[in-house]
Amino acid sequence: MEVEQYRREREQEFQSKQQAAMGSQGNLSAEVEQATRRQVQGMQSSQQRNRERVLAQLLGMVCNVRPQVHPNYRIAA
Predict the structure, then answer these.
(1) In a domain, 49, yes or no
(2) Over the stretch 30-60, which tens digit does the pLDDT of each residue have?
(3) Handedness of CA 50, 56, 59, 60 (dihedral sign)
(4) What sign has the CA pseudo-torsion 58, 60, 62, 68?
(5) What domain range includes position 49?
């Protein structure tokens, strides 16, 4: 009988520790999820702010081509 009572006490202690650990993990996952959402929102707003400038730079580089002979090119005689 004493062994059974001891086993129940240990089982209850284990269950309470397990709940405490799982509860803190749930809290951590919520914090990580919230931080991830903030980072994604920051990246999206940055993309919206810089979109036009980046497109203008890319179009400028593509449209303003300056043809040149490469310095390593040698004409074969």
Answers:
(1) yes
(2) 788 899 999 999 999 999 999 999 999 999 9
(3) negative
(4) negative
(5) 1-62
The full DSSP string for the chain is: -HHHHHHHHHHHHHHHHHHHHHHHHHHHHHHHHHHHHHHHHHHHHHHHHHHHHHHHHHHHHHH-------TT-----
| Global model pTM greater than 0.90 | no
Q: For position 31, what pLDDT does the model report?
A: 83
Tokens of 7: 């086993």
Identify the band that residue 65 occupies on the pLDDT scale cut at 50, 70 and 90: confident
Name the residue type at position 5.
Q
Domains identified in the chain, total number: 1
